[in-house]
Specification:
With about 350 residues, the chain is an alpha/beta fold. It contains eleven helices and nine strands. The structure holds S-adenosylmethionine (SAM) and iron/sulfur cluster (2 copies). The site of one iron/sulfur cluster (SF4) has 12 residues, from helix 10.
C-alpha cells in the first residue's frame, strides 16, 4: 500500500458492500472529465472535450471537504466521467481523496483497466469499481462500439485479480431489455460482486430512437429482476442481482424501498463546474468555480423544491409512499416535464386512480 494512504480509509467487509457503502452518506458524483474513448448510443453527454485541470480538481476537493466538515456529514465520492480513467490526473486525485480519509468509488466503462491500472487502483482502496455492461457481447458492442465488451471483461478480470470489489451497472433500454439475465450470467462468470440496473433517461422530445422503456416493458423487467435476485442469492444471504433502484423493490420485497436522493444527499459536479441535483435531471444549480458548495446548494430554488417536495397526490394511499415519495424524479421529468408527479412507470394504484 502507498505510504500516503490513510489506513482508516481501508474498507471493512461491511463498508465494502457497494450498496451499503452509500447508505447514510452524502454522495458527490464527480464527472472529472467529459473525455471518453467510447460514444455509447444512449449517453447523456453532449460534449466529449471538457475536463478539469489539476488545480481545478484539487480546488473542488477542498470545497467538498469544507462542505462536509461544515455540516458534519460523511461523504462518498463517485469518480466518473466521460471516462474517469481518461483523466491524466485520475490517480493523483484518487490518492489525495483516500489520503484525506474520504471514501470513493470509480464508475467506468472498464475498457481502460489494464493489469498495471488495476494494480494501481487496488492500492487506492476504492469501495468498489462500477463497470457498465449493457448486454451480452453483441448487444453491448452494438450500443458501445466493437470490442467494448471484450475489453470490459478483461478490465473486470484484472480488478478481481487484485481483490477489488466490482459492481456491474446495466442501463435498461428498449433494445437491451431482455439482456439482464445474460448480463447476470456473464457477471457471475467473471466473479462480479453485485449487479444493479437502472432505466435509461432521455427527455421524451429528444428520444428519437425510442430508447426509454414503456411502463409495461419496465414492469416486466422489474419482475424479472426480482426473480433474478432470488435466483442469484448466495449462501451468506447476499445476491448478485440487486433490485434496489427506483420502483424495483415492488417485485423484490427484501431489497428495501428506494428513495430518490435528488435535492437531498446527492450532488453532481460536471467537468465544466456545473452543479446539478441529479445528472439525469435538466437542472443546473450553479457553478463550483463561483463559490463554496453550501451557499450554492442552499440558495438554489430547485434544490429547495426537491428537498421539500411532498408525496404526489397520485401516490396517496400507497403503502410505500412515505419512503418512495413518487419513484424516480428523473424518469418523471423526462416523461412528463414535471419533477414532482408520480413516476409514470409505476403500476401501483393510488386513491386518485380508484
Ligand atoms: C456517464 S457513464 C460514465 C462512466 C463510464 N464512462 C461508463 O460508461 O460507465 C455512467 C453511467 O451512466 C449511464 N448513462 C449514460 N447515459 C445515460 C442515460 N441517458 N440514462 C441513464 N443512464 C445513462 C451509463 O450507461 C453508465 O452506466
Ligand atoms: S463510456 Fe460512459 S461516458 Fe463514454 S460514451 Fe459511454 S456512457 Fe458515455
Ligand atoms: S404509488 Fe407512488 S409512492 Fe407508491 S410505489 Fe408508486 S411511485 Fe412509489
Amino acid at each position: 500500500m502507498s505510504e500516503n494512504i490513510n489506513p482508516a480509509a481501508v474498507p471493512t467487509a461491511q463498508e465494502a458492500d457497494p450498496v451499503k457503502v452509500l447508505a447514510g452518506r452524502h454522495v458527490l458524483q464527480w464527472h472529472i472529465t467529459h473525455r471518453c474513448n467510447l460514444r455509447c448510443k444512449h449517453c447523456y453527454q453532449d460534449d466529449f472535450q471538457v475536463e478539469m485541470n489539476h488545480d481545478e480538481l484539487f480546488a473542488v476537493l477542498d470545497k467538498y471537504e469544507r462542505f462536509l466538515n461544515e455540516r458534519n456529514l460523511k461523504g462518498h465520492i463517485n469518480l466518473t466521467g466521460g471516462e474517469p480513467l481518461a483523466s491524466p490526473h485520475f490517480y493523483e486525485l484518487a490518492e489525495e481523496i483516500t489520503r484525506r480519509g474520504m471514501t470513493f468509488s470509480i464508475l467506468t466503462n472498464g475498457t481502460m483497466i489494464t493489469e498495471e491500472n488495476a494494480a494501481r487502483i487496488a492500492l487506492l482502496q476504492p469501495r468498489f469499481v462500477q463497470v457498465s455492461l449493457d448486454g451480452g457481447p453483441d448487444v453491448h458492442d452494438a450500443i458501445r462500439g466493437a470490442g467494448a465488451s471484450a475489453a470490459a471483461y478483461r478490465g473486470i478480470d484484472w480488478m478481481k485479480e487484485f481483490g477489488v470489489r466490482v459492481l456491474v451497472s446495466f442501463t435498461a433500454q428498449r433494445n437491451n431489455r431482455f439482456e439482464l439475465a445474460e448480463v447476470a450470467r456473464i457477471a457471475a462468470k467473471h466473479k462480479v460482486d453485485k449487479l444493479w440496473w437502472d432505466r435509461v433517461i432521455i427527455p421524451i422530445d429528444l428520444d428519437k430512437d425510442h430508447l426509454m422503456l414503456t411502463p409495461q416493458q419496465f414492469r416486466l423487467l422489474a419482475w424479472r429482476s426480482g426473480r433474478l435476485t432470488g435466483k442469484t442469492r448466495r449462501a451468506d444471504g447476499t445476491s448478485l442481482v440487486t433490485s434496489v433502484r427506483g420502483l424495483q423493490f415492488l417485485y423484490c420485497p427484501d431489497s428495501g424501498t428506494y428513495s430518490c436522493q435528488a435535492g437531498r444527499n446527492l450532488l453532481i459536479i460536471k467537468a465544466d463546474g456545473d452543479m446539478m441535483p441529479c445528472r439525469r435531471l435538466p437542472d443546473i444549480i450553479g457553478n463550483i468555480k463561483d463559490g463554496e458548495i453550501g451557499p450554492i446548494v442552499d440558495g438554489s430554488p430547485v434544490m429547495k423544491a426537491l428537498r421539500e417536495a411532498g408525496i404526489p397526490e397520485a401516490c396517496s394511499g400507497c403503502p410505500h409512499a412515505q419512503k418512495c415519495r413518487g419513484g424516480s424524479r428523473c424518469v418523471t421529468c423526462a416523461k412528463t416535464g414535471s419533477r414532482f408527479g408520480k413516476d409514470p412507470d409505476c403500476w401501483i394504484k393510488g386513491r386518485a386512480d380508484a
